[in-house]
Amino acid sequence: MKCTSCNKDISQDGIGFKCPQCKKRLTRCNNCRSLIVKYKCECGFEGP
Ligand SMILES: [Zn+2]
Ligand SMILES: [Zn+2]
Predict the structure, then answer these.
(1) In terms of Cα–Cα distance, which of 11, 41, 16, 40 is closest to 28?
(2) pLDDT 10s digits, 10-39
(3) CA 28: distance to chain centroid?
(4) Looking at the predicted structure, is the pLDDT value of residue 47 above 90?
(5) pLDDT one-digit tens code per residue, 34-45
(6) Of the bound ligands, which one is closest to the alpha carbon of residue 47?
(7) Separation of 42 CA from ligand 1 center, angstroms?
(8) What residues does the ion ligand 2 have nearby, CB within 5 Å?
């Protein structure tokens, strides 16, 4: 499992969520989540 924003391995301290657009499962590390780093899904959706 890797962070969608920074590509860091987050097998332990990440959260999973779904892309609002394509419902693909995305994951983000706690660091990026607390910093509200943007993510970009492979479908092109960008979110906070
Ligand atoms: Zn991250
Ligand atoms: Zn998507």
Answers:
(1) 16
(2) 888 888 999 999 999 999 999 999 999 999
(3) 4
(4) no
(5) 999 999 999 999
(6) 2
(7) 16
(8) 19, 21-22, 24, 41, 43, 45
Backbone angles phi, psi at 28, to 5 degrees: -145, 145
Distance (Å) from CA 18 to ligand 1 centroid = 16
Using left for φ > 0, alpha for ψ between -120 and 50, and beta otherwise, residue 25 falls in: beta
pTM score, two decimals? 0.77
Ligand nearest to the backbone CA of 34 = 1
Query: What φ, ψ does residue 7 adopt, rounded to 5°?
Result: 70, 10
pLDDT the model gives residue 12: 80
**Centroid of ligand 2 to alpha carbon of 4 (angstroms):** 11
CA-based R_g, the chain, Å:
10
